[in-house]
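Researcher: Re-running this chain for the archive, since the previous output was lost when a drive failed. Same request as before.
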Amino acid sequence: MSDIQGRSQDEDDDLLFADEDAPDPSSATSGPIAAPWKLLIVDDDPEVHAITRVVLNDVTFDGRRLQFLSAHSGGEARAILNDHPDIAAVLLDVVMETEDAGLRLVHHIREGLGNRRVRIILRTGQPGQAPERQVIVSYDINDYKAKSELTAQKLFTTTVAALRSYQHIDAIERNRQGLEAIVDAAGTLFEQRCMDRFAVGVVERVAALLPRAAGAFLCAVPDGRFREAVVLCGTGVFAEATGRPVGAVLPDAACADIAAALARGRSLHRDDHSVALFQTQSPGPGALFIAGHGGLPEVERRLVEIFCSRMSVGFDNVSLYEQLRLAQIATVHALGKLAEYKDEVTGEHVRRIGRWATAIARELQAQGSVGGDADDRFCELIGLASMLHDVGKVAIPDQILRKPGKLDPEEIIQMREHAAIGGRILRDASGPVGGRSYLSMGAEIAESHHEKFDGTGYPHGLVGDTIPLSGRIVAVADVYDALLHRRPYKDAWELAAVVDLIRAESGRHFDPRVVDAFVAVLERGGPEA
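Model: Regenerated structure tokens:
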């Protein structure tokens, strides 16, 4: 229940604007002093300011005292309101520098500043200048008092009622803003497909949701073994704690609170920190630790709970996505192994192709030479997809694949069929998946990596940019790696000779932009392992 304390009955019980006793404080209680309520007094009469401060000086509402701000004109009040957007209530005179200065200020507060939270109490010594019924209907004020009726008791009652109203409206508004932040966070974070990036996003959003907090971090607790808990990511005072054991970051009492919250399966709140849990279906972060918030009000506790509930779904989604991605990777490796099984000498060939294809794609993206074709998704997919470029070799007889010499014309025709075969196999496999995937890109690579930029390649004789970009990239990577390493039908070439050939074939066999990107990567020492 709110704690309201009025003045003691003494010599200040005298007339404020009319005779009446001051409130009896017998039922009042005192509480801890928190950030004060800001009360703005706007009146051109200095005595009104002085008397108001005397009467309300000892008022405490909900454990918070009053902080008085004074303005003697509408202009002064505007400046104060701009500097103090958290003013709870305004005691406002009507007639000041002009006959309607107070009413103009009301319009400025509501329309100019867009402040709907502050409670406005209009008090006037000249009711005829601003008739009550007309003002109440025409202006967004919360109370109207003639100065002749404002006793100490009524001023106290009016002020406390205004503070309580502001408190409720402020709580509703903060709740609304918090829910909007949660919805926005969900919409943004649920697009993440990487657990690390999602976790970082979660703690960043918590910091935005609770700006008073000194910092927050997510910790992972493997199989409930809290002693092995580590910090996944943190903000504020925990920004450098990533990867460290929780016990090395927090004092024993705070660690005990995290362990207790995990054991009980529900959040825990203290005056200086909170522990919120993520109830996930799959292994994920065990808890969110928030420090230095100075005690969370109930509305913010509920917002944290709602946020964690929503983010728990997000963690499950990211976990499922990662499982799916790993299953796809395993599928790609299994299919790539088919070609390796048939052509054992090139066992590491597909892995090297994957690294080179990714590096070339990233370089093209950085150079911007192919526009938006080399976007993030393209660069993410091409490394694995390129490992499927020779999957069609499963249909080529071993005596052709492993022939130690040159192929005759009929064998060449058979060998070239692997491109079309690989494309068909992977296209059929990608159908149920839908969209752009490792399999769909693998299909276009398998079918197009032997096309040539000048149109003399196979199987379709495509020219220039009609060849898929993925195929143009893998064409360079494939030739480079094939020439650089020994094959059944040839010895390995020297690096300089391979590079000279690729440069010479720029514009004929290869896309010149891809060759430029390849050379740039090579000059930096090649792709990362």
